[in-house]
Amino acid sequence: MEMLIRWCVAGILSLLLGYAAPALAFEDDEACLMCHKYPKMGRITEEGQQKSYYVMPHVFSKTVHRNVPCRDCHGYIKELPHKPVTEGVTCDTECHSIQNPSTGKPFSHKPIYDAFKKSVHGREKIAEGNDADKPYCVNCHTNPLYNAKEEKPPKHIVDRCVVCHEDAKFAEKWYNHTSRRIREVKRSPQEIVEMCSSCHADKEMLGRHQAAAKEEGRELGRKFMIAAESYNESFHGKLSKYGSDNAANCLDCHANTVNYYLSVHELLPSRDPRSPVSAENRVQTCKQCHVRADENYAKLDPHPSSKKEDNVFKYYAEITYTVVGNVVLAMLVGLAAFETWGRLRDGVSWRFRDGSSWWRRTRRDSNRIP
Ligand code: HEC
Ligand code: HEC
Ligand code: HEC
Ligand code: HEC
Ligand code: HEC
Ligand code: HEC
Ligand code: HEC
């Protein structure tokens, strides 16, 4: 929840800080902020959830969506003062105000949306039943800040642009837009594992889906129930946990590398031949990093588990090794105990002297056992 609307909903914090809104850094043509600039704005829903409707103007003005007028997204608001809201923002709406400069058409996230709809996670914004478990755009994306670490675009760059473009605002806008993408905006491997595991480690939710799939006669992957926990068991999982950025994370294998930024939205199950982890493509996927990987190497299990239903051989091997290990250990300790008991019985006692530890009390009290 916190992730969902961090930027729109941060009123309480500001209230505590006693923040007063400065002059706006973006145009509020629709006068939404007339009301929504007040930190206390919000309510408690019927479910008892606290909601803030405060929009922090100084934060919003630094986000990637700052040029999108409120109603391009909140299109369901048709009049002011507006009616209570029933549906939410969908991410496939066309902007009325922003043109895609490359096509001249109204901008929208439709290409990503279409890919997403066909993926394993495809769902509607308002979803019911099991579909509601799948991630919608806002589960993974907040409204990110441009170059969050920079106070302002560097002067020496803007200076150079204004030589020709004359308008510093224009230069800053495009500097922000492009520089954010030229710098890598990928999440770290650890963040990706955390993101996918937030659902794929939730046994109760997964169980619900497996039961439903069985009922509908639908197939799910062999590793569906254990994907996250088994990844953590794997070599890649352990490396990644200890901070390696080179070990494969979920998306290195499950997303196509042809266009990473699009294909993270079109994840397919391994039984689909187009998936990078399908039997057909697996060698190629391992080869991205393991240059010499062949058919045999690709058979190594990236989701290893020693559950009986997953890997019978490993299951029994593990039991056998546990038994053998424990028996050997018990015999070793037993032997030592037995020997100690025997020596004590023979009057050999244990103490340090002259570099040795076992001594027998004799007439001269110094006779070392050879
Ligand atoms: C006259 C004051 C006013 C103006 C102007 C205004 N709002 Fe609101 N808005 C409110 C109030 C009051 C609520 C809380 C309504 C409620 O609790 O049912 C609200 C709630 C909302 C909500 C959350 C609704 C929900 O139930 O989830 C959204 C989204 C919203 N406004 C967007 C906008 C947008 C976009 C604009 C500009 C087009 C705008 N508002 C302009 C007063 C206003
Ligand atoms: C890029 C699209 C986008 C823009 C632009 C945008 N919002 Fe939002 N807003 C969202 C999304 C997504 C949510 C999360 C709730 C949802 O999914 O419907 C949200 C949530 C809100 C909420 C809380 C609603 C709730 O149900 O908790 C308010 C209030 C709000 N926005 C007001 C505004 C105002 C005012 C502006 C303009 C300054 C604005 N928004 C601009 C996408 C947008
Ligand atoms: C030597 C002059 C010059 C400098 C310096 C310069 N530009 Fe440009 N820029 C132009 C010209 C001329 C065009 C339009 C012609 C073209 O498309 O090649 C243009 C086009 C653009 C466009 C495309 C605008 C559109 O709507 O098509 C953007 C964006 C842009 N420049 C950003 C920048 C940024 C950011 C900087 C600084 C890092 C910069 N420019 C530096 C001359 C310059
Ligand atoms: C399961 C999580 C997930 C879901 C759901 C998701 N995305 Fe993404 N999205 C990502 C990841 C991961 C990236 C790659 C960049 C990164 O690592 O943040 C990305 C990248 C993007 C980018 C490129 C950002 C840039 O600056 O280059 C856009 C735009 C985008 N997503 C929009 C959407 C839209 C629209 C939806 C809904 C249809 C959506 N995403 C659903 C995880 C997700
Ligand atoms: C918000 C929860 C959520 C998140 C986050 C999430 N998933 Fe899923 N995932 C699901 C659900 C629910 C299903 C659908 C199971 C079904 O078809 O009933 C699913 C299905 C899948 C499947 C197909 C399973 C099959 O056998 O058909 C794969 C592969 C998958 N997810 C991988 C990922 C990866 C990789 C990530 C991280 C980028 C991720 N998921 C993030 C909830 C999530
Ligand atoms: C080294 C590559 C690799 C990595 C890393 C990886 N997977 Fe997989 N994943 C696979 C392969 C290959 C399969 C098919 C295994 C099989 O059925 O034998 C699979 C199967 C799955 C399945 C079952 C559905 C299906 O498509 O068969 C899910 C869900 C899944 N992975 C999610 C994840 C998540 C979540 C992560 C990260 C925590 C992850 N994977 C990391 C290669 C990988
Ligand atoms: C994003 C890069 C990447 C991808 C893709 C990848 N791996 Fe790895 N893998 C690594 C790294 C890094 C190590 C650490 C050991 C090393 O340097 O060889 C590793 C180690 C391993 C190990 C441990 C033993 C060994 O050979 O060093 C196995 C087994 C393994 N990977 C299997 C696979 C399989 C099977 C696939 C394809 C389904 C795959 N990997 C895909 C990066 C990757």
Task: Describe the SSE topology.
Blueprint: H1 11-17, H2 33-36, E1 42-44, E2 50-52, H3 57-60, H4 70-73, H5 110-118, H6 137-140, H7 155-165, H8 168-182, H9 189-200, H10 203-216, H11 227-233, H12 235-241, H13 250-254, H14 260-263, H15 282-287, H16 295-298, H17 312-345, E3 348-353, E4 356-360
Antiparallel strand pairs: 1-2, 3-4
Helix pairs in contact: 7-8, 11-12
The protein binds heme C (7 copies).
Question: How would you sum up this structure, described in words?
Answer:
There is one protein chain. With 370 residues, the chain is mostly helical. Among the domains are: 196-305, no CATH class; 313-360, no CATH class. The chain has helices spanning 11-17, 33-36, 57-60, 70-73, 110-118, 137-140, 155-165, 168-182, 189-200, 203-216, 227-233, 235-241, 250-254, 260-263, 282-287, 295-298, 312-345; strands at residues 42-44, 50-52, 348-353, 356-360. The chain starts with 10 loop residues before the first helix and ends in a 10-residue tail after the last strand. Bound molecules: heme C (7 copies). One heme C binds at residues 193, 196-197, 200, 221-224, 227-228, 231, 236, 248-250, 252-254, 269-270, 277, 282, 302-303.
